[in-house]
């Protein structure tokens, strides 16, 4: 299984960053990534044959995170806990201001940004992972980047800096 060890070492950080952004840094993201890689290890012969094993792990981690929230909502009375304090630390290795702006995006746009830009999946792979078409991925990414450019320009007062970075 040395093959899996190489895959894990090469992709674990990208998967974790993508899941953190896609889930707005919700509690359990680290556990979801660990569970996804554990499942990939258990099924490595099948996962290795997948057209994109990273997309398989990301989809599994996203599903695990969603299942965790569904279980939590059933157990709690009322709203899920506020996770606003997560922004104080930066486990994703992103600029705190940019991460906050990305996390403020609508869910689908945030997921597309996380998978396309942070996990470096193609539009087709992102679409398969999120169960949407590649053209829809492009639309969500375009809208997300336009929103980020506008919000970052307002936050910095300098739109030219934004155009260079995004």
Brief rundown of the structure:
73% of the residues lie in helices and 0% in strands.
| Gap between N and C termini | 39 Å
Mean pLDDT: 79
Count of the separate structural domains: 1
- The CATH class is Mainly Alpha
Total count of helical runs of at least 4 residues: 9
State the CATH architecture.
Answer: Orthogonal Bundle
**Care to count the β-strands?**
0
Shape: globular
Proportion of residues in β-strands: under 5%
Q: Report low-confidence residues grouped into runs of 5 or more.
A: 79-89, 160-166
Radius of gyration, in angstroms, nearest whole number: 17 Å
Q: Which secondary-structure class do the elements indicate?
A: mainly alpha
| Portion of residues within helices | over 70%
Annotated CATH topology:
Arc Repressor Mutant, subunit A
How do the helices and strands follow one another from N- to C-terminus? HHHHHHHHH
The CATH homologous superfamily corresponds to: Winged helix-like DNA-binding domain superfamily/Winged helix DNA-binding domain
Biggest pleated-sheet summary: none
